[in-house]
Amino acid sequence: MMVYDIIIIGAGTAGISAYKEAIKHTNNILIINQGPWDTTCARVGCMPSKLLISSANQLHDAKTLDKVGIQSSIYIDTSKVMQRVRKYRDQFTASVMKDVNSWEKSHKINGKACFIDATTIEVNGKQYTSKSFIIAVGSTPRENKVWEDDLGDLLLTSDTIFELSSLPKSIAIIGSGAIATELAQALYNLDVKVHIFTRSKHIAIATSPKIQMLIQDELSQKLNVFFETTPTLKKINNQISINYLDNSNKEQKLCVDYVLNATGRTSLLKTLQLNNIDPNFHKIENLPIAKDTKQLANLPFFVIGDAYTNTPVQHEASHEGKVAVKNCLSYPDITAKKNYPPLSIVFSSPEIAIVGQSYQQLKEAKQEFTVGFASYANQGRATVLGKNIGGIEIYIDNETHKFLGSEIYVTQGEHLAHLLAWSLAENITLEQLLSRPFYHPTLEEGLRTALRDAMYQLHEE
Ligand SMILES: Cc1cc2nc3c(=O)[nH]c(=O)nc-3n(C[C@H](O)[C@H](O)[C@H](O)COP(=O)(O)OP(=O)(O)OC[C@H]3O[C@@H](n4cnc5c(N)ncnc54)[C@H](O)[C@@H]3O)c2cc1C
């Protein structure tokens, strides 16, 4: 019987990265994928969303040119915007497929894998055995069968929204996480009337009360956000009627063209019948997966990417793919994945980012830390750009003065976040950060203000 060295299940970012690493070491591998092989990131995730956001941001800048003393008149045809989204999305997916198509045919199987036992999987009625498995099955938008049945095509998810031929006049977004926030702001900037309904009191990823408040203050000027509100949805003619209770518990109603279900994503681990490996693996939430190595129990199994994570980001999925291969080949000698400094970005405008440990994580860990803050409401460079909104917090360990993390809501925050992630990797202190040159006039000068604020407080104590 043929026994593979590694079977990879799922050919998204994580699985593809694993295959590309594995092929350097062995030819005795198999990669199995159900559905398209061009990755969530390129097809319905990072790339089409950033394309839509780019058009939205540029339109917003054009519409607010008067801020920098320019009068203009603008015409927008959203069918052109959507055509551009799909044109470049197709280029990104084609580039992934070029890679995948160059792989040895006998290494690839189209189909849904599920486990028969701890060494065998079944795909399309055939069984395959391996010494080790990399499970990279990703996640899918959370389903709501009732809404699907009632609303039909008027219910969108991040899987379907980029297929719209043009943008609607109005939309209700259910959920207020990272994906919901990015799409809500992009649609608003593209002249769609946006209503957000969320069960929580939060927008996007920021955990710091101050940064969260800055985000809410800014976004609620533009988006119609209903916090802690669960609406009921009904299709009437070709629209959706939404009923909800307002702050004073009075019933209210509004009508929209579409609803976007952005209530989160669920892992596709449930498709694998992991209970055939061990009956205790019945519940996905209780799977014994090591946080640092991604190993499942003590088996030669590694669960990577969005399938099992609190930080569903492309760079982690890709990195975990490489590490999992090393661990499969050296099993039972397992090494922890090299921990990149965590970095999450929401591409709203301004961008929201968390570097390293969040405010909430530090609080939960009962860490003694100082928060340095700088507002960007009057920050020099941000004012010059006409984007003087938001602020930055940086977190410093009270004893060692080590830089621990940061929450950011600043224009071009992705670059500040990147810089800070690199600094975190160097295990840097507040004093070392402040000794670096800060050039003038830059957005980074606001970071220096936050660092000085932390220094001032630490010296006060
Ligand atoms: C709208 C949106 C925007 C995003 N924006 C960003 C961003 O800006 N930056 C960022 O870093 N990340 C972003 N992400 C997240 C990023 O896309 C994911 O972290 C990444 O794609 C996860 O890759 P993966 O390999 O784990 O999963 P996927 O790419 O989803 O791959 C999993 C594969 O496994 C297959 N599969 C599932 N079950 C089985 C089975 N039983 N048998 C065989 N095959 C199976 C699936 O069909 C799929 O092909 C975004 C995601 C979305 C949805």
Automatic annotation (TrEMBL):
The keyword Flavoprotein applies. GO terms for molecular function: flavin adenine dinucleotide binding; NAD(P)H dehydrogenase (quinone) activity. Its cofactor is FAD. InterPro entries: FAD/NAD-bd_sf, FAD/NAD-binding_dom, FAD/NAD-linked_Rdtase_dimer_sf, Pyr_nucl-diS_OxRdtase_dimer. The keyword Flavoprotein applies. Residues 344-450 form the Pyridine nucleotide-disulphide oxidoreductase dimerisation domain. Pfam families: Pyr_redox_2, Pyr_redox_dim. Keywords: FAD, Flavoprotein. Residues 4-272 form the FAD/NAD(P)-binding domain. NCBIfam families: PRK06292.1-1. This is Dihydrolipoyl dehydrogenase. It comes from Acinetobacter nectaris CIP 110549.
